[in-house]
Specification:
Blueprint: H1 2-21, E1 26-27, E2 30-32, E3 41-42, E4 49-55, E5 58-64, E6 70-77, H2 83-95, E7 100-107, E8 110-117, E9 120-131, E10 134-140, H3 148-157
């Protein structure tokens, strides 16, 4: 009887500690952005730098490394209840930009696009997530002069 109770206690402890691991900083090779106030997990390269800023009700987190990873995550209140409509809103913002050239790839939760700025082709993306009354927008960082390959790699790091 005591022996089975000990085994039960060990099993309970293992389950509790295993369950708590998902609240840590890594989950399935992904990094948690929870400590920056953004409740998501994403894949990022090793040795990235996190830079947090706030402006009004918009939280901003820029994640960069020394090579070509330059990602910005924005979280703000949303007026949308359907992901499709939120994506279309962001698509309209992008396509109305005078530097906009074309949509390169289109996905259910976002898109990759091309811009022509001062005769230089640059690429960017938007991936949108709805969490209750908040929207989270992933895009290339503000200082990124991104290539198409670079943007494709960053977008794919956000896929589930």
């Amino acid at each position: 009887m005591i022996r089975s109770l000990n085994y039960t206690m060990i099993l309970v402890c293992v389950l509790v500690f295993s369950g708590c691991e998902s609240f840590g900083s890594k989950k399935d090779g992904k990094v948690s952005l929870h400590k920056y106030g953004i409740p998501v997990f994403i894949k990022v390269p090793d040795n990235v730098t996190f830079s947090k800023a706030s402006s009004g009700n918009v939280e901003s987190l820029t994640i960069t490394d020394s090579s070509d990873f330059n990602l910005q995550v924005l979280m703000s209140p949303t007026g949308y209840s359907q992901l499709k409509n939120l994506k279309l809103y962001h698509r309209d913002l992008v396509t109305n930009n005078p530097y906009f050239i074309k949509i390169v790839e289109d996905y259910d939760e976002g898109f990759i696009f091309e811009l022509l700025i001062n005769d230089v082709r640059v690429y960017d993306f938007r991936k949108v997530v709805l969490l209750g009354d908040k929207e989270i927008v992933f895009q290339a960082g503000p200082t990124c002069q991104c290539t198409e390959k670079n943007v494709m790699n960053m977008y794919s790091s956000l896929l589930k």
